Structure formats: structure tokens, C-alpha cells
Amino acid sequence: MLFFLIGAVVCSVASGQLAPFITPCRQADSACHLSSANRAAPILAAGVPQLGLASLDPMRVGRVASNQAGLDLEMTDTTVKGLGKCVVLNVRRTGKKTSLELKCPTVLVTGDYKLGGKLLILPIEGNGKYKIKIRDIIVKIQYETAEEERGGEKYWRVINWKHTTDVQTNVQYQFQNLFNGNKQAADSIHQFANSNWKEIYHEVAPPVVKAIIGNVVKEIEKLFQKVPINQLSLD
């Protein structure tokens, strides 16, 4: 949730207009952006129906599939919880580029999975329910905007974005029905995965993390479609 919140705050939607819950700031005033972002978090976490903004905590994610490092992975019916607890650490807007950094204490990702191949060095296969618990993740996002004119008003739109993540504490993995229910084999995989959580995170998590942030960017774009630039910036 906070990912979207920051994107909105960085653009300084003017208080008392279409998004009165966000304090307006000048482009160079990072302290103002930071304060406004953290205040607006609970409102945006719940969604803003009048602006067509969906709830981002919980977040629903569609099908995510990847084939990398010898591992075929598919995740479906995914639910993400905990984004509403993210804290904004830094916000900076320079020209058309916005960068933000936030820390989320606990993010819980659950859903259905199907996988096969190798998890680092170990063979793995299974399908069923999964749960991934991420503790203390730092997320950095940068996006760039362009202007377009509609109905005599100018609006922003996101033309590209990128992100990086770093987990500070740990990641816990739980996959039901590994090896067709072979508990001994499943226990070995879970012990290996949770002991090598950082390496497994970089192998398993990137597709679903990108999908989560992609959903956030879509909500930012919805905001930009509703609110013209002259209500988004003091300068």
C-alpha cells in the first residue's frame, strides 16, 4: 500500500481538492513529502473509491510465472498482506523522476503454487498452497512521468519504472504438498530454504515482487488519470 501512497504524495496532490488527505509540497521539499506520505498511509491502505483506487492491503495478484535458474514456478490466487504497515524512509522528486524508499516490517504472501526443477542445488517439485513471510524488507522505487493533455487540462502518466529490494531480517517459506506429500523430503527442502533464505529469495521472489509493485504503479496511474497536474504540484 505504502508504495502507492508515496507515489501519490511525491506528486503533492493538493489538500482540499481531489485528494484532500494528502498535504501539498514543493518539489524540493523532501521533508514535507515524507511527513505527508506517512500521514496518508492508513487512508490509502483502505482504498479511495471516489478516485477509483483499490485497496492495497490486502492486495490481490493475478497469475505469476517464471522460468529461471532451472526452476519453473507458477503462482496463482495470490494475496499480499502487510503493505499498509510500510514506513516511508525517503522521498525525492527531481524533474520528471521520483524516487522513494520504504521499509515494510512484515509482508505475508499466500496463494497457490506449482513448481518443478531445482531450488539452487536441490531437486524440487510440488503443487498446492504456499505462504511466504518476509520480515523487514527495504524497497526502492523510481519512476518517470510524461505529460498529456485532456479536456484542456494537463495530466501525468508513468512512462517507465524500476525497483530494487533488500530483506534485512529473514524470509520464511512454506509450501504444502511438496513431492506429493512426502513429509521427509518436504522437511528437508523447507530446512534448506529457510536456512538459505536470502539466496532462495533472489531466486523465487523477483517475479511476484515485480507483480506487486506493478499493481502499485497501476494505482498511481489511476490517480494521475483523475487529478490534473495543477492539483499535484505547488511549483
UniProtKB/TrEMBL annotation:
A single GO cellular-component term on record: extracellular space
Pfam families, per the entry: JHBP (PF06585)
InterPro entries referenced in this protein's UniProt entry, alphabetically: Haemolymph_juvenile_hormone-bd, To_sf
Keywords noted in UniProt: Biological rhythms, Signal
Keyword S-adenosyl-L-methionine: no
Annotated signal peptide: 1-16
The keyword Amino-acid biosynthesis belongs to this UniProt entry's keyword annotation: no
Similarity field: Belongs to the TO family.
PANTHER family reported in the protein's UniProt record: BCDNA.GH05536-RELATED, PROTEIN TAKEOUT-LIKE PROTEIN
Stated name of the protein: Takeout-like protein 2
